[in-house]
Amino acid sequence: MVLSSLHSVDLDTTMAQQQFSSLQQHVAYLQTASPYYRDLFQQIGFDAKELKSWTDFANLPLTGKAELTHNNADFLAVPAEQVVDVCQTSGITGTPVTIWQTESDLQRLTTNEQRAFVAAGIVASDRVLIGAALDRVFMAGLAYFLGLRQIGATAIRAGSGQPALVAELICRQQPNVLVGVPSILQLVAQQLRQRQKDPAQLGIDKVICIGEPIRSDDLSLSPLGESLRATWGAEIFGTYASTEMATAFADCSYGCGGHLLPELIVVEIVDDAGQPVAVGTAGEVVVTPLGIEGTPLLRYRTGDISRLHTETCGCGSQAPRLGPIIGRRAQMLKCRGTTLFPAAISSVLQELDGVQGHYLEVYSEYDLSDRVRVFVGGTDPNLSSTTVAQAIAAKTRVKPEVVLVRPEQITAKTIIPELRKPVTFFDYRNSGKEQG
Ligand SMILES: [Zn+2]
Known about the structure:
Shape: globular
Bound molecules: zinc ion
Helix content: 25-40%
CATH topology of the largest domain: Rossmann fold
CATH class of the largest domain: Alpha Beta
Structural class: alpha/beta
CATH superfamily of the largest domain: ANL, N-terminal domain
Strand content: 15-25%
């Protein structure tokens, strides 16, 4: 069986050897510099010098969000005076975690983001609106700014919190590239239409999407991706990144998944037991970012489900690519024998006329089944909860309870200013909360 790790798929041998040698250095660094991993290696009787093969590597323990949260300070691997920037994860799924960065980490972040922008064809003459926060100890906006600066493109630091402000900046500063969260960019488009501006006529050539997948599992644009393309009249690029991995996987213009950067990160796809799955099989994305000084990690479980694509990309690259995120492991729904991710329901709703936003609530019904309630925004008189529920059932085999509400109610519930993207999934399965 070919395992779904970058190292064992059909990779250029030199690249695989270089990556393994960087990995050995990384693991040696963890042992000397990271209090958390020094203790962990001692407990399991492992010495970094014993790492001789990818099989040795696959036998090392995984690190999860819980370990990182509960022992956060032990992950800091440099003296405090070497830290030049602190980031926090957004805390959508729990307590925020601190990630400390050194000067070298910021340079690595710059290189990573520069490569993501280059993959999308961004050049010095581009004017790029950054629709992600540079403040509030977020990493993403900072990374985009650093990458654009390296390319020499013009950055327009709009942030993500206020669609009206972003719309205003688009009119005044005339970017030709947008970087942002798809569902928030759709709100910006609404603001523009309210000002009698057609978003497709504003000269936007490219939209680089962050935080939400815009492709389906087969790599075609999802309904959300198609809608963005039509709205802005632009080429759409998907990216996947997280604060913990401090690395981004970006589409090239062939849109065949996010190109992996073997010099910067080792990617594995694993099953529930943490074992590598066959190439092309969906599983949890596990990452080991290389060359990190401040907060280095080993085999970190992202909680995101995806699969690797290994056919040669249209751009000629033979390195594997990471497909869109199909869902979060913790958000998998079990409904009377069927399992699905909330994204499958979102995808149906994005295709329905008259739907303006949605969110899901999930409750425990009985041991092996969840009760799903879908709140759908809409003012179209042709929209009824029955037709929406039927449309969902036709595509997913799960018929949830549907509640129609005004679009403003959806926005009020899902747009949380402190968070970087809308929250559309509310999980009450283990909270003891009764369905209201
Ligand atoms: Zn490519």
